[in-house]
Amino acid sequence: MIGMATEHLTLRKCRDGYYRAAWVAASGRRFQRSFGQARLLAMNRFARFHARWVADYHTRNPDVAPPATVGEAWQRFARHAAEHYRHADGSPTREADNLAAAFAPVLRLFGDLRADEFGPRSLVTVRQAMIDSGLCLNEINKRVRKVRQVFKWLALQELVPIGTWHGLLTVDAIRAGRTTARTSAPVGPVPDAHVWAVAEHALPTIRAMILVQYHTGMRPAEVCMMRPLDLDTAGVVWAYRPGQHKSIHRHRERVILLGPRVREAIEPYLHRALTACLFSPRETISQRAAGAPSHRRISCDSSCDSARQTPRTERRVGTAYDAKGYALAIRRLCAEHGIPHWSPNQLRHSYATRVRQHFGLEAAQIMLGHARADVTQLYAERDLSRAREVVERIG
Questions:
Q1: Partner residues linked to 231 by β-bridges
Q2: What DSSP line would sit under 36-69, residue for residue?
Q3: How many Å apart are CA 73 and CA 91, to the nearest integer?
Q4: What is the pLDDT of residues 268-322, one digit of tens each?
């Protein structure tokens, strides 16, 4: 019966003159709702109800009791997050996982509390638990905002009174010097000597990724997702348009220009299929395994890009790096060779520093993709011209 649940709700005029909508819930039970006899009034009422019916699981399934506890409310939100936080191609983002991590102490401390009773003092208790766990100040403030984000959605769905969410807004962010939470050092540029020391010891794939990011300032995730499909190789300066980027939901285009040094770094990887990522961890493992003891070796044949390979250790290896895997590779190289640790994000800061020193603050904002969304077309064209000048000189 679950498969019979209604997917599209329609308004119909019945024989008695009333306008009604009927649907089948996930349980198989049938429900209907009347919107009156006046046609225009019924259509307006139906439009408001339909919007709520599409967005809210409980409205579509009235036989399911609304969440009474914080834990039950979270389950409702988790279903929403799994469907809502996705890239344009339908793949899930990391936002659902980030929200789950932020809400974990709420469930541990107040999972059995009535959802409408979770107030400011409860949130302060959760925040103190975060402090006690050793999280840094910035991460704590970020997670508290995500907890409020969950309750904002619950209030929007009328699962908790809107006053519950408003109450949580009274909890201010903690500030350095007024809390026992540790503060983290700001992310800054990485010295060139440390970059080249890691690049010297890195295997070809990781070395290429470092060079690409060093000469473009792109985000680590943008390096990892590079595909031949996203590259415009016409002309002296190539253009890379990531399939996913931070501001895609704002309908902004992200264009990263690639100069001669970057082209030289990626050319050995352009034989990939159009939709395959340039940098594959399977190649890195194969390169490492070629010089390792026999029990550590794996095979990687010509189908490496299209078939999942499993080393003898049963470790599953994906077809592309992600930002965490890329950062871990650099961390390991730093540890193995006694190089002060740095992260891929610092390469972005280093690039911004170099561009600002030579071309000014405006050029740095352009090259990093920090332009405002409401700039004029003339301004955008001037930006691209300035960007090409930068790339031709230092890229």
A1: 240
A2: -S-HHHHHHHHHHHHHHHHH-HHHH-TTSPPP-B
A3: 25
A4: 999 889 989 999 888 877 777 775 443 333 334 433 443 344 444 445 667 788 8
Domain coverage including residue 211: 192-279+320-394
> Is residue 216 included in any domain, yes or no?
yes
The dihedrals phi and psi of 137, each to the nearest 5 degrees, come to: -55, -50
DSSP code, position 173: P
Please say whether the beta carbons of 132 and 108 come within 8 A.
no
Instruction: Check whether residue 370 and residue 350 sit in a common domain.
Output: yes
Residue 87 lies in a domain: yes
How deeply is 391 buried, as exposed, middle or buried, from its count of CB atoms within 10 A (0-12, 13-18, 19+)? Answer: buried
52 φ, ψ to 5°?
-70, -35
219 and 363 co-located in one domain: yes
User: What are 105-159's pLDDT values in tens digits?
Assistant: 999 999 999 998 999 999 999 999 999 999 999 999 999 999 999 999 999 887 8
Residue 375, token pair as written in the block: 């700039």
* 246 lies in the same domain as 333: yes
The domain tally of the chain equals: 3
DSSP secondary structure letter of residue 255: -
Query: Letter for the amino acid at 200?
Result: E
Do both 116 and 156 map to the same domain? yes
Is 42 found in the same domain as 131? no
Task: With both helix axes pointing from N to C terminus, report the angle between 281-289 and 204-216 in degrees, rounded to the nearest 10.
Answer: 140
Residue 258 located in a structural domain: yes
In terms of pTM, does the model score above 0.90?
no
End-to-end CA distance of the chain: 60
Are residues 258 and 385 both part of a single domain? yes
Distance in angstroms (rounded) separating the CA atoms of residues 319 and 304: 8
| Domain shared by 352 and 215, yes or no | yes
